[in-house]
Amino acid sequence: MSVGRRDILRAGGGIVALLAAATRPAGAAGVVDIAMGGRSDGGHVWFDPLGLLVAPGQTVRWTNRDAGNAHTATAYHPAIGDRPSRIPAGARPWDSDYLLPGESFSVRLTVPGVYDYYCVPHEQAGMVGRIVVGDAGADRRAAEAAVGDLPDAALRAFPPVAAILRHGIVRGS
Amino acid sequence: MKTLLPLLAAFALAGAAPALAHGPDAALAEAPPAAPYQPVSALVTLPDFIPGLGQLFVDPATLPAGPFLAYDRDGALVSTVYMIPLADLNPDTAFDDLAAAGGTVDHVDIHYNAGHPGVEVPHAHIVLWHVPADEEARVAQ
User: Fold this and answer.
1) CA distance between the termini of chain A
2) Is residue B6 in a domain?
């Protein structure tokens, strides 16, 4: 059964839809895309997909598909805004800076583990995402237990690592 | 005395009329509005024209609340917008005497907004429309 965004919205907010039952990393052969979206009235914003499984060495590309807003894809890391580290040890953090509608930013992820990131102007509204590279390994437990100084809305939005490993792609409401 | 009453009433009505229905300040009626207003897109990273709101200008000294002046693609003023962080709606914070130079208000919309550059927290958009509801489409796209 396929569940689309509209169906999820009808079912109510907060529901996490699990799509694409593939257990291998998404788009293993090339660049994997994540859209930055927003409702036309600015009342709801998101990364789509919310959770993503990729292979070590794959490139992830974020594109702003929201005609009325700017977004960032920013890794949780002390080097960027003195935020708690939520990427694997040894991995290089990234910050796209603000992307206007139609603009893109790419990063190649080589270190296996769990990467959490956020949108700077929308973290308080829960616009975060999670990427698992390869086998989450030791990162899995740490990622799910970490709290740091994140807003509640952000902590509630991260999809479970197990769901990403099982489904490859996790979409939000 | 009787002869003065109609005159006093006429003066009272004449004085009240501008408060009931008046246009915007001439310096603000068309984009770009006069200084100290500046394009929001020049102050923060946002599209120059925001679908649903229009082209926004603000006096930086009034941030984050505004007023923001919103214009359609022909440069006509369509609304005055205030942006109030939800966290500031508390017993210790008030927003008093916000300027309202946009003229007659036809109707008001209040929307939740998840945030954007310049106001990076969830907040309320309070939109004082200076055009009828069926003309909001002027800034839809």
Assistant:
1) 17
2) no
Q: Tokens 């590309």, residue?
A: A61
CATH number, domain with residue B73: 3.30.200.270
CB spacing of A67 vs B51 below 8 angstroms: yes
- Per-residue model confidence as pLDDT tens digits over B54-110: 999 999 999 989 999 999 999 999 999 999 999 999 999 999 999 888 889 999 999
CA distances from A61 to A49, B13, B59 (A): 12, 64, 36
Q: Which of B88, B109, B111, B120 to mutate to test the interface with A (most CBs of A within 10 A)?
A: B120
Exposed, middle or buried by CB within 10 Å (0-12, 13-18, 19+), for B44? middle
- Identify whether B117 is part of a domain: yes
Three-class HEC string of chain A: CCCCHHHHHHHCCCCCEEECCCCCCCCCCCCEEEEEEECCCCCCEEEECCEEEECCCEEEEEEECCCCCCECCEECECCECCCCCCCCCCCCCCECCCECCCCEEEEEECCCEEEEEECHHHHHHCCEEEEEECCCCCHHHHHHHCCCCCCHHHHHHCCCHHHHHHHCEEECC
Please tell me the pTM assigned to this model. 0.81
Interface of A with B (CB under 8 A): 38, 40-45, 67-70, 98, 100-101, 120-122, 124-125, 127
Establish if A169 belongs to a structural domain: no
SS3 B103: coil
List the one residue out of A112, A111, A71, A127 whose CA is nearest residue A95.
A71
B47 and A70 in contact by Cβ < 8 A?
yes
Q: Which domain holds residue B63?
A: 27-139
Number of domains in chain B: 1
Classify strands A128-133 and A51-54 as parallel, antiparallel or unpaired.
parallel
ipTM of the shown complex: 0.77
CATH of the domain at A68: 2.60.40.420
CA pair distance A50, A128, nearest whole angstrom: 7
